[in-house]
Here is the input.
Amino acid sequence: MLTKIKAEIVPVLSAQTSLGENEIFNALEVPKNLDHGHLAFPVFPLAKQLRKAPPLIAKEIVEKINAAGLKSLQSAEAAGGYVNFKFRNDFVQHVLTKSVHEPALGHSKVGEGKNFLIDYSSPNVAKKMHIGHLRATVIGQAIRNLAETQGYKVTGINHLGDWGVQFGKLAWAYLKWGGEYDFENKALESLNELYVRFHDEVEKNPDLEKEGASYFKKLEDGDEKIKKIWQMILEVSLKEYQRLYEMLNVKHDVIMGEAFFNDKLEPTIARLEKAGLLKESDGAQVVFMDEPLPPCIIRKSDGASLYATRDLAAAIYRREVMKADMNVYVVGAEQSLHFQQVFQVLRKLGYDWAETCHHVGFGMYRFKEGKMASRKGQVIFMEDLLFRAIDLVRDIVRAKNPALSETERER
Ligand code: ARG
Here is the structure.
């Protein structure tokens, strides 16, 4: 776009001065203040050669340009040592519309033959998505789209949070109270209520925590009945997410949640062990990091693996099995310590491909009252936000287009 606008003025300037086209092309600047025009040409390089003061040179160039009568130009003005060019609106619009419709605008082949893996959205299942997931979802999809224009073979991954003790609690609560809820129509709401109810109950009867843990253990050991409930939770969550993804035009190629890595955790820990990286600390097994990072916990004292353990296994899988040349994680900045630790462990394992792993972080929404907290009802669901945005846009369209027919207005 800028190239095309520059190309309009370069030959004219070159004809009026002793400078070559390339030189002029590179010298043209975009003024900081757009009121000054679309492009500015600094005449200083000519001063020595012409032995004239820059403002005078600028003035002379303006006269010559005006005499040349370039149709696309609205004005050329001398301002100190610069000539400022303003182009006519219809010309700028023309260039803009043409560029936008160019199918290969900005495309390249730099990524040809390379696998670009990108992990985005990746919500924790059994919960409705809220606005905190919006950026992880849309920034991820945007980067994915860009990577595709650069020729990469892109694989979009939904790394669902689908494992952990909360599924034991949910299974317990579902078996006990599930019948009282409308799973047919309000599955995620029901799961949420079950979860809250479970915790209310824990207040009265702390032993329930153990029940939750034992149900999770059953799930880990492959208990069929509990596994079915877990699968149901996964299904209803995905069904809901899919609806939102469709609204946002977001697509993943593979759904590969944390649970997928269950049987890959021991081999991962074995690698750490073999490399002499696994150390004991307060009964837990950790990898010590370089200053100033705190140790990366690999296995808790009760033997349980952690989020980081699963991400290590996942990163190794993405490289060794999925052949990632680039492995990108689009996740909120509050997890940047986590990713620094994971990437450092990979480097300590001697994997030079750790350099191809990147965390793309972004900020968190904060409210006057502080962070978003679902417990306090301070949560804005993604669905509500999207419908609200649609309503607002529809109102604006209607207000601006009173002549639209009713059916058109309804769309
Ligand atoms: N499920 C996580 C969360 O909601 C995000 C997962 C991001 N991806 C990853 N490989 N850690 O916080």
Remarks:
- The mean pLDDT is 93.
